[in-house]
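> forwarded from #structure-qc
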């Protein structure tokens, strides 16, 4: 009888430990962006989930094809988008409303791709994960940043605090034979100061496209910050030049992700684009990027979105002559929008 009770106790301890590891937040990749797979509780509303993960309700509803004012079916599997409104590349020591995110490396991944998705340099990603070089291994768990999390919005069973030893991958021991870096679990908050994190993140934003492609080569770190002056080229169109001025060469840009609608722009010049946005004043220049075709246009805000069905759940509207330039045919498309 004692042996049976002992065995039951050991099984209970094992499953409890496993449950703790399962509480870690693991992201996946969708449309060249991080997303968080999430299983809803009983009759959770779109607003409750949006509040919990600091996502605009309209964006959460759009990506999951539901009504922004409705509820999700109980225990349904949904996608929580990760973007500028809820993703952190640095975290203060006293900040408790953010949770670490992890990613399981797959066959098609490399450090450059993962770093680009998080918007940091490869050097920062190596520091975060205590990597001795830019080699990563299939199945290993990598820390990729933080997500804002509101623990007061409901009773969903998600971890709301981590001690220092839980900051790294919950299964880091399995990777110790692959690299010396996994001998100690990474804790980005203790590796270097927030000021150093900001400096590294901004240096990455300043990298020119051709520099990003070669960033996996072993180059001195200072090489990645001097090429920003290449962007000051007289061949840039006026809207792009103005965008760089307004955002400090992109360093101070805010990024939104969501549905973009198109409005009729008959009579507008071929390569001149205009936009409507509810929160930006006239004259602000938007950088609109289509991740599907890797194409970009720059548009000038001329006013707010009309309160019509055509623009429901859209973050902005763009003149229709930009469709071809972005490689689009539909009346709505998912895009990344950057502005000051």
């Amino acid at each position: 009888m004692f042996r049976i009770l002992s065995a039951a106790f050991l099984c209970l301890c094992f499953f409890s430990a496993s449950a703790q590891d399962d509480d870690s937040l693991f992201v996946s990749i969708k449309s060249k962006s991080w997303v968080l797979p999430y299983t809803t509780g009983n009759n959770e509303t779109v607003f409750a989930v949006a509040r919990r993960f600091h996502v605009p309700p309209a964006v959460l509803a759009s990506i999951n094809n539901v009504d922004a004012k409705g509820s999700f079916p109980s225990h349904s599997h949904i996608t929580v988008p990760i973007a500028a409104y809820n993703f952190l590349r640095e975290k203060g020591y006293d900040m408790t409303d953010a949770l670490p995110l992890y990613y399981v490396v797959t066959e098609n991944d490399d450090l450059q791709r993962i770093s680009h998705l998080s918007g940091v340099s490869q050097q920062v990603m190596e520091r975060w994960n205590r990597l001795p070089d830019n080699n990563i291994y299939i199945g290993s768990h990598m820390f990729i940043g933080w997500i804002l999390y509101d623990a007061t919005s409901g009773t969903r069973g998600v971890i709301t605090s981590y001690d220092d030893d839980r900051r790294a991958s919950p299964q880091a021991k399995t990777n110790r034979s692959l690299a010396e870096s996994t001998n100690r679990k990474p804790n980005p908050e203790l590796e270097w100061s927030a000021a150093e994190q900001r400096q590294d993140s901004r240096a990455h934003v300043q990298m020119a496209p051709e520099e990003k492609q070669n960033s996996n080569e072993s180059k001195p770190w200072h090489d990645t910050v001097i090429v920003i002056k290449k962007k000051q080229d007289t061949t840039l169109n006026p809207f792009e030049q103005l965008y760089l001025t307004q955002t400090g060469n992109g360093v101070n840009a805010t990024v939104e992700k969501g549905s973009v609608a198109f409005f009729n722009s008959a009579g507008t010049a071929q390569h001149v684009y205009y936009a409507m946005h509810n929160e930006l004043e006239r004259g602000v220049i938007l950088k609109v990027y289509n991740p599907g075709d890797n194409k970009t246009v720059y548009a000038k805000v001329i006013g707010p979105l009309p309160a019509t069905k055509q623009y429901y759940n859209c973050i902005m509207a763009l003149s229709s002559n930009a469709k071809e330039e972005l490689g689009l045919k539909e009346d709505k498309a998912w895009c990344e929008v950057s502005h000051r």
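QC bot note: The first strand starts at residue 25 and ends at 30. Residues 14 and 102 are 22 Å apart (CA to CA).
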